[in-house]
Specification:
By secondary structure, the chain is an alpha/beta fold. It has 14 helices and nine strands. The chain has a five-stranded parallel sheet, sandwiched between helices. Strands 3-4 form a two-stranded antiparallel ribbon. Strand 6 and strand 7 (162-165) form a beta hairpin. Bound molecules: adenosine-5'-triphosphate and magnesium ion (MG). Magnesium ion (MG) binds at residues 50-51, 134, 175.
Length: 294
């Protein structure tokens, strides 16, 4: 049995130690998931720390992270297991003609000829792991149904080999960017965590952690501007990832303030759509230019 977190407080402190600053409900949900053995469904806009949470949690729990990156058309062969046809063929070819099919069959459907994919690896692992099923909304509903089965029983049936049962219960995180509605059945089995853009103070702390040498006043102004930009009706509002990139860029450039010129020069780090650039330059750039804003 792997070490179980003792309290929500321990989880919060542990995640921080791994460089992840959890919001209020994040530590609570992570704690419950580890203790109750339930998967977490993490939803929220791009770049708010969904994937990073799984990585930090794995490090904190001292478990290996097994990641299944979802995409359109992902199937069982790539998610669960598949037979290594080439190796099976070679095996058959090297067999003497006199060997009967029965003997060969027993052999080529053994573990040696099985290619384990992430779901199978996570279930078969003797040590408990953290399983990250990233961007589940990119797959189709059939895949989701298969996943439901795996997540409710923590076992996989291979017709030729029999049942493989989970020896250690993995902590499972599923992430979604909300590109499609997930089924009720899946949601019912999961704890739910909605990660949104952080508050000013929280984001300031995250930025300071990733760019500790950036002057405090610049960092504070940066998160204020980012919050202002997110208020605009943009195609792609800047995420935490962009705030961090911007902080690092300003640090490299030795910026002591974010004045109108600096803002315009570095705008493309936080805004990445042609039309968004115009909107932001006009609405925010002008504010920075006026003496009121500084
Ligand atoms: N709470 C946090 N503490 C520390 N760093 C954070 C936090 N949230 C986000 N980050 C940083 O923000 C960046 C983006 O996070 P991540 O890649 O996990 O986003 P995501 O939600 O998975 O995005 P996407 O939906 O695009 O995959 C990472 O570099 C991560 O380190
Ligand atoms: Mg991600």
């Amino acid at each position: 049995m792997a070490a179980q977190p003792e309290s929500v407080h321990h989880v919060a402190a542990g995640l921080r130690e791994q460089g992840y600053l959890p919001g209020e409900s994040t530590a609570l949900v992570a704690y419950l998931a580890a203790r109750l053995g339930k998967p977490i469904l993490v939803e929220g806009p791009a770049g708010v720390g969904k994937t990073e949470l799984a990585k930090a949690l794995a490090k904190y729990l001292g478990r290996e992270l097994i990641r299944l990156q979802c995409y359109e058309g992902l199937d069982e062969a790539k998610a669960l297991y598949e037979w290594n046809y080439r190796k099976q063929l070679l095996r058959i070819q090297t067999e003497a003609d006199s060997t009967g099919w029965e003997d060969v069959q027993d052999d080529i459907f053994g573990p040696e000829f099985l290619l384990e994919r992430p779901l199978m690896t996570a279930i078969a692992s003797p040590e408990p792991v953290v399983l990250l099923i990233d961007e589940i909304d990119k797959t189709d509903q059939e895949f989701e149904a298969m996943l439901l089965e795996v997540l409710s029983d923590f076992q996989i049936s291979i017709p030729e080999l029999g049942r493989i049962e989970s020896r250690s219960h993995p902590v499972v995180l599923l992430t979604s960017n909300n590109t499609r509605e997930l089924t009720e059945a899946l949601k019912r089995r999961c704890l739910y965590l909605w990660l949104d853009y952080p508050s000013l103070e929280h984001e300031l702390e995250i930025v300071r952690m990733h760019a500790p040498d950036l002057p405090e006043t610049v960092a504070a102004k940066l998160v204020e501007i980012i919050a202002m930009v997110r208020e605009l009706d943009l195609k792609k509002p800047p995420s935490i990832a962009e705030s961090i990139d911007w902080a690092r860029a300003l640090l490299l450039l030795g910026a002591q303030d974010i004045d109108e010129q600096t803002f315009r020069d570095t705008l493309s780090i936080i805004v990445k759509h042609r039309t968004d650039l115009d909107i932001v330059a006009e609405r925010v750039g002008v504010k920075l230019g006026s003496p009121l804003a500084s």
